[in-house]
Specification:
The structure is a homodimer. The longest helix of chain A is centred in the C-terminal third of the chain and has 28 residues. Chain A is mainly alpha-helical. In chain A, about 70% of the residues lie in helices and about 0% in strands. Chain A is built from 14 helices and two strands; from the N terminus they run H-H-H-H-E-E-H-H-H-H-H-H-H-H-H-H. Chain A has a two-stranded antiparallel ribbon with strand order 1-2. The first copy, chain A, has one domain: Orthogonal Bundle (Farnesyl Diphosphate Synthase), CATH 1.10.600. In chain A, helix 3 packs antiparallel against helix 4 and helix 4 runs parallel beside helix 7. At the A-B interface, helix 2, helix 6, helix 7, helix 8 and helix 9 of A face helix 2, helix 6, helix 7, helix 8 and helix 9 of B.
């Protein structure tokens, strides 16, 4: 696996390994000081959801944004772990039979298939809660204000007006609560909430961890929003064109449910052009940083061009 | 309703009204600055879960503990709102068909009955996320360290080794993943996690909000743990003896599922005696505060003697 990869891909993998090791430690069966017990089945389901898989793109954005701004410490890694735990919980709940009803995720059975619905609901709840524990628990070199602001931003990005709200709009777009034809503006709003908000916050979180200026934070947020929009269009193109084997999950589900995507309204070529435009917008937001922004620019290109 | 109540009950109601008003504002359909949209069905389900019901015992403990320690500001109210939002989310998820499968809660249809399972899962997720937003978002007179420590404590009390872990042990105690006979020690551990941890943290949160000494915080935690254990025994006695009409939810469910409770191992009279002993232990933990602890002592007695 280590051969014929680009330096960017090697860096992505290195960060993923750091994240994976910390997640393994967080999800140990051994109770921490002050804990009564860690139920074995719950911990196993949480590990199933959070370990051994994924590019760890969100922590990569947080960690590389912080690094660009001069911070390589614990604060950035904490931010990255927190956004990844929120991402992992959201996959577990979205896959439930009552929601998107998916059996396969990253080529493995989804948590409710490997365990059961109750365990999956609770594992998701516990991963979400753990995200906020990681973001806020005392750390030697991370001031309380930084930890609190990270957690508040994470909550806004992932809650009722962010990721959870976006999933609600996505279910509504299937027509399960009445007819619903989505205009292009509605699709963009839904996507900005469902996937965009957490991706955008991941980059912003790096700036918060680095205790950067409001101007830096705004630039990273603009970068993250453009990357997030590109990510979702790339996802819609993959859902239409890739095979289930390459993706490790079911494909064509959105079209099957009559959900509108930007591929419908723009066509495949139009969607590709829009994706390219967003990658350039992401890069433009980072222009003030010059060559220091190279890794994040590559992350935007990688996001748009990914095959899985 | 306002006549023939004790001063304690009047105070409990006053705090409940303050909490209710703040929850109404938090759960408004109107997006806050920076929010893209608040999906109407999601907000309605969240309001169904969080408004118009409940004694608001947890915020009462946080607010009264802080008041006893000299803090009457926003920090204590924030702590109270955060623990209440976690409590409300946990009821929504626990009531789901995959979990305890309850149709009735406080005399109203549960969220998944009034809406549907997907909406209930997402409303719970959003309430949990909102709890951490409330705990951590910037406030003029609440230092970042206080907000971060409140959120970290809330996460530990409500996560994998706290409330969520306790619900997992409770489902296991039904025997759904294999035979499981609970010894008295197991029941106490389960209850300390499932209901005790959040109640205990509620009192502790008041001390954190008040920026009290570690000794004060430890006393409030000890008080909260005893109160939490008394609460659960009182709940088990009510489940055995009350009517569904008085409780506003189904009764006798634990016995029906063969779950062990302390009423089984101690008998009704033994359980009542244990409950009384715990109330005295709660009061004893607050002895250093003398008359200032009167409201919290009454809260412990109220918890043990409640009829619903």
């Amino acid at each position: 696996m280590a051969h014929d990869t680009t330096p960017f891909e090697a860096r992505l993998r290195t960060v993923a390994e750091i994240v994976e090791r910390r997640l393994e430690a967080l999800l140990s069966d051994t109770p921490r000081a002050g804990e009564i017990a860690r139920p074995a089945r719950l911990m196993a389901a949480m590990r199933h959801a959070a370990l051994a898989g994924g590019k760890r793109l969100r922590p990569f954005l947080a960690i590389e944004a912080a690094r660009m701004l001069g911070c390589e410490g614990e604060a950035a890694l904490r931010a990255g772990l927190a956004v990844e735990l929120v991402h992992c919980y959201s996959l577990v709940h979205d896959d439930l039979p009552a929601m998107d009803d998916d059996d396969l995720r990253r080529g493995k059975p989804t948590v409710h298939k490997a365990y059961d619905d109750a365990t999956a609901i609770l594992a998701g709840d516990a991963l979400l809660t753990l995200a906020f524990e990681v973001a806020t628990e005392p750390a030697d070199d991370v001031p309380g204000e930084v930890r609190a602001v990270l957690a508040a931003g994470l909550a806004r990005a992932s809650g009722l007006a962010g990721m959870v709200g976006g999933q609600m709009l996505d279910l509504a777009a299937e027509g399960r609560w009445g007819p619903r034809a989505l205009a292009q503006a509605d699709i963009r709003e839904l996507q900005a909430m469902k996937t965009g908000a957490l991706l955008a916050f991941s980059a912003q979180a790096g700036a918060i961890a680095a205790q950067a200026s409001p101007e830096d934070e705004a630039r990273l947020l603009a970068y993250g929003r453009a990357l997030g929009a590109a990510f979702q269009i790339a996802d819609d193109i993959l859902d239409r064109e890739a095979t289930a084997e390459a993706l490790g999950k079911a494909v064509g589900k959105d079209a099957g449910k009559g959900k509108g995507t930007l591929v419908d309204t723009l066509g495949i070529d139009g969607a590709r052009a829009e994706c390219d435009r967003l990658v350039e917008a992401a890069a433009a937001a980072l222009a003030p940083y010059g060559a220091r922004a190279e890794v994040l620019e590559q992350a935007a290109r990688f996001t748009a061009a990914r095959k899985a």
